[in-house]
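Much of the work behind modern protein science is quiet bookkeeping, done one molecule at a time. The protein below has been through that process, and both of its lines are reproduced in full.
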Amino acid sequence: MNLELFIPELSLLACAIAVILLDLFIQRKGLLAVVGIAGLVVSAGFTLAMWGGSSQAIFNNMLAVDNFALFFKLLFLGIAALVILASVDYVSKFTRFQGEYYALVLLAALGMMLMAATAELISIYIALELTSISLYVLVGFLKDQKSSEASLKYLLLGAIASAVLLYGMALVFGFTGKTQLGEIAQVIQAMSLSGILSSPGLILGIVLLIAGFGFKIAAVPFQMWVPDVYEGAPTPITAYLSVASKAAGFAIILRVFYSAFGLPQWLSLDWGLIFAVLAVIGMTLGNIAALPQTNIKRMLGYSSIAQAGYLMVGLAAMGASPATDALGRSTILFFLAGYAFANLGAFIAIIAISNKVNSDIINDYSGMGKRAPLLALALTLCLISLIGMPPAAGFMAKFYIFSGAVQHGLLWLVVIAVINSVISAYYYLRVVKVMWLGEPASEEKVLSSGALRIALSISCLGVLLLGVIPGFVMKLAELAAKMFKF
């Protein structure tokens, strides 16, 4: 059974249980964050030890152990570590439940690690629900009106999305008789064109899968939960949702649509066109809706919808030639890494500033360049990256993903994406203008914990390194894409 290949997940599960048990006996709750970070580091060490090996499968081919899964596991572990570090300043808002909070962050990371490795429909659904249930609870952790409303809305819409996804899986299973992604691919490739076209249920199943996964990545028209949930959730969890949950959704989409529906060519062209249309609608609606926002968390919520649109440009390009386009898949992986650093850095800076001014309204950030110049500089760098301006990671991420789309004849889609990037500059730079040109409400400095400053420094360093010397991470992404097996 090769249980040793499952050690990263088992070690993280053991850490989550340890955090819950320790919470019962220790008075210094700050130790819980230390234990959580230690568990993530141990799991990351086991994951790194597997890098570069041959692709293997465990649990009757339900989980794949390949560089693609390992790349995302390391990404999720890193994101969870930064979220825990950033939460040290925030957990005072729910002092009685710190153990549960950290444990749920770890369990959500565990679910995402499984999502990246799943190669079978049933295990995909189980991993997705483990992640979703943990996040439903975390969103409502503040227990005030906004947080409770956000959690309920996320739960109800998430349940509907899960039902749609499960129905799509049932249709695919019903028409192929298989749940393994590789076996589904073999059945579809053996069918004639007329046979597939005479099976509308199979096509409907693929469409429902797109809808179910679209909810996880906040793609239009499945994005209606985003602004309210982002505003109501604890800010570290908003960051977690915007980055880790989105990356997990794209990991599953890449594996499912490459492994199961990559061939025949006409089928991949069709679902590639669907993603192209969703990309146009998503980036346009997200950017336009972000323009009038006055709450920075809602603004970044709509921004994440637009960012999902940019990422789907890569999916549309992959649909043009999924069997040979390892470069297209690697650009999506690089984009997700760059976006993770930038968005996490932005939210970590927001945690520090909002804790001081007790507000998420953009105008209340006035004069932060004078009160907290380093925080304002960090937030400025991250927002510049989200626009896609050099020398930040976002510039290289968009350059790679747009170049791949142009190579596959999607110039029209790239033109629309570039126009949308220009539109997004307005609302991102408005925050920068308020911070640096506005008058401060007071001269009092904005203080933050050492843990938060470490998390913010790592995020900003990642933004700069991926923007200036992107080759190393791009090489890792290419290796992960090449090791992607059926």
The longest strand covers residues 56-58. The chain has one domain: 3-482. Residues 3-482 form one domain. DSSP finds 20 helices and two strands in the chain.
